[in-house]
Structure formats: structure tokens, C-alpha cells
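Hi R.,

Here's the chain you asked about this morning:
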Amino acid sequence: MPKMIFVNLPVADLAASIRFYEAIGCRKNDQFSDDRAASMVWSDTITFQLLTQAYFQTFAPRPLAQPREAIGMLIALSRDSRAEVDAITEAAAAAGGRADIRERQDLGFLYGRTFEDPDGHVFEPMWMDMAAAG
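And here is the predicted structure, written out as C-alpha cells:
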């Protein structure tokens, strides 16, 4: 079995979050989804587990953070081109998120933008020319 990452995220509105994550390229895995959780597959090895806030709390030993008030993590998503970075960021904004919460990063060999999902979780799609980076 390959090593996998499951990113568990608390969400206020599960249906809206499902629509958002589908808009940025995820597909819903109904086998692991119900009225409290949605398993949104990003790739063969990365899945976003969207959990209603109440359900998320059953797993969390501490109070739920408010992502619009403080950032606990940044989720970087690799893309195959600068155009894909722009496309996912624009799709996020059109689907209820917020684009470019900080300035675009353009170092020539590396290009990145940021967006928030409807709950304020921060994503950083980025493209890097590995040959030029060295």
C-alpha cells in the first residue's frame, strides 16, 4: 500500500464544501462519505476528509480553531504549470472561496498563489521548474 495523506478539515456547511472541493478538482468517494463527512479525493495518495464541525470535535482533544482568525497550516498543492496554478485559484474563487489572500509569488522557476476554502483553510497551489530550481 502506498503512503497516503488524509487531511481532516472541519467545515461549517458540508454541502457547500463538497461543491467547493469538486470545483478545485476533487472527486467525492461515496464509500467514505455520509451526512457528517465527505471523503474528497485529490489524487491516488491524498484525500481531504471534510467533517462537520460537530463530528470533527469528536476526534479533537482541544477546542476547534477558527481558521479565519489564525492559521495553523498552509496546504501546498503542486500543479503542472503556471496556467494550472491560475486555473485552480480562479476556480476556488468562483466556488465560494477567496483568491489571492496574499501577493502572488513569482521567482521565475517557482510560481504560486493562495486561496481560502469557504471555511478559511488556506491553500497554496504552486508550480516549480525543478531543472531551473537547482
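One quick note: Residues 4 and 45 are 4 Å apart (CA to CA).

Cheers,
M.
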